[in-house]
């Protein structure tokens, strides 16, 4: 069947902070039309629907899924609802773009994977950093062998003050703190660029020493749509070493609060032929004619640009739904990243290294 000229009718579930980037990207995408918006908060859903021209507004996602004219959904809700809504959407015959993290636990991730296999529908995990233009460029360099064998990567995403409060700091809805919220991105990106090696063992630490530091004044930070600092039972910071079966290793650290001089984001990869930094800006290191060369690709965005990356992620999702391309972030990768995150929490709780089979 030809999909030429067909526009996918999209439902966006969850109309809080991140949904704006999804809605904007669907609006720009020539393959999609925004048909419906759903949020528990009706005013929020109505405002988004009015802004983006969606005909239907729902407060119950099951009603949105019952609409046979909807082809695909974006899930932009709290983490504890991702698995349930993904499975319901797949069973209703919809393609799914699910925000990161794919879900809270390995058990949930396995159920989502089964639902994808049963339904035959696409589920793209919202690992948006994979879709950034700079990462696309670097992936081509890596695939062409410019870095050789990548044996070490390190990534750091430190906020000195940045616990978003609300559901993010309520572990029953988030599944954890900066590790599951920020660590998921940098662990996934390094693992993807390293060629998705098989995990051998993981050692992690989590810390709850500072709290959310809601007392700090005169310094603004990212907050959930329903900001509330009164509840906080997630870690302030975490670190981990992930060892892979091919001998490579990944070192990460993340924080919502830390006595750091400033916020910091870096993602670095080291191979036996060359190296690369994805953040703070793309640079590729090599050795030529007995000389160390740092090359700077000349591209629109050398560091992460949210509207570019979400635009590319959603265009790719639409292309996958229409059978033109394969998703770059399938459910299998969502499951493997969930395994890594869970093992870091488990290692921290037990104080021992976790071995994978
Ligand atoms: N890719 C990224 O870089 C990125 C950035 C921020 C957030 N996120 C992810 O996006 C998701 C949402 O984060 P946010 O910052 O927009 O949070 P938010 O609190 O601003 O918005 C979440 C919205 O979901 C709604 N909601 C919750 N459960 C619902 C349900 N069952 N049905 C309908 N609506 C429901 C809430 O009412 C709220 O409006 C999270 O999973 C988060 O991890 C991803």
How would you explain this protein's 3D organization?
- The protein has 357 residues and is an alpha/beta fold.
- The chain has two domains: 8-127 and 312-325, 3-Layer(aba) Sandwich (Rossmann fold); 130-305 and 335-355, Dihydrodipicolinate Reductase, domain 2.
- Helix content is 33%, strand content 25%.
- It contains ten helices and 15 strands.
- The chain has a nine-stranded mixed β-sheet with strand order 14-13-12-11-7-10-9-8-15. Strands 3-2-1-4-5-6 form a six-stranded parallel β-sheet, sandwiched between helices.
- β11 and β12 form a beta hairpin.
- α4 runs parallel beside α5.
- The longest helix is centred in the C-terminal third of the chain and has 20 residues, at 331-350.
- The protein is globular and about 60 Å long.
- It binds nicotinamide-adenine-dinucleotide (NAD).
- Residues 13-19, 38-41, 44, 61, 76-79, 81, 99-100, 126, 128, 166-167, 181, 224-226 line the site of nicotinamide-adenine-dinucleotide (NAD).
């Amino acid at each position: 069947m030809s999909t030429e000229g067909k526009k996918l009718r999209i439902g966006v579930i969850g109309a809080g902070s991140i949904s704006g980037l999804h809605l904007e990207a669907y609006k720009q995408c020539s393959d999609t039309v925004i048909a419906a918006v759903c949020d528990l908060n009706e005013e929020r859903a109505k405002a988004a629907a009015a802004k983006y021209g969606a005909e239907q507004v729902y407060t119950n996602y099951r009603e949105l899924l019952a609409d046979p004219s909807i082809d695909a959904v974006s899930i932009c809700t709290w983490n504890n609802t991702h698995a349930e809504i993904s499975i319901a959407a797949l069973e209703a015959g919809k393609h799914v773009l699910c925000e990161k993290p794919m879900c809270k636990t390995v058990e949930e991730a396995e159920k989502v994977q089964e639902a994808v296999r049963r339904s035959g529908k696409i589920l793209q995990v919202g690992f948006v950093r994979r879709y950034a233009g700079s990462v696309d460029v670097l992936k081509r360099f890596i695939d062409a062998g410019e870095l050789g064998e990548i044996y070490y990567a390190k990534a750091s995403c430190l906020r000195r003050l940045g616990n978003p409060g609300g559901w993010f700091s309520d572990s029953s809805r988030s599944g954890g703190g900066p590790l599951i919220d920020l660590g998921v991105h940098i662990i996934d990106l390094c693992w993807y660029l390293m060629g998705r090696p098989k995990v051998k063992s993981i050692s992690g630490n989590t810390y709850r020493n500072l709290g959310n530091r809601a007392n700090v004044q005169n310094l603004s930070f990212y907050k959930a749509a329903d900001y509330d600092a009164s509840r906080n039972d997630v870690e302030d910071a975490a670190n981990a070493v992930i060892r892979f079966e091919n001998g490579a290793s990944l070192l990460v650290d993340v924080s919502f609060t830390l006595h750091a001089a400033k916020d910091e984001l870096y993602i670095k990869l080291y191979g036996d032929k060359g190296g690369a930094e994805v953040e703070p800006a793309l640079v590729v290191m090599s050795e030529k004619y007995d000389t160390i060369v740092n090359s700077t690709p000349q591209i629109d965005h050398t560091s992460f640009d949210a509207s570019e990356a979400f635009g590319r992620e959603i265009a790719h999702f639409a292309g996958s739904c229409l059978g033109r391309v394969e998703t770059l972030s399938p459910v299998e990768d969502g499951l493997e990243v969930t395994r890594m995150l869970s093992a870091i929490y488990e290692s921290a709780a037990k104080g021992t290294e976790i071995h994978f089979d």
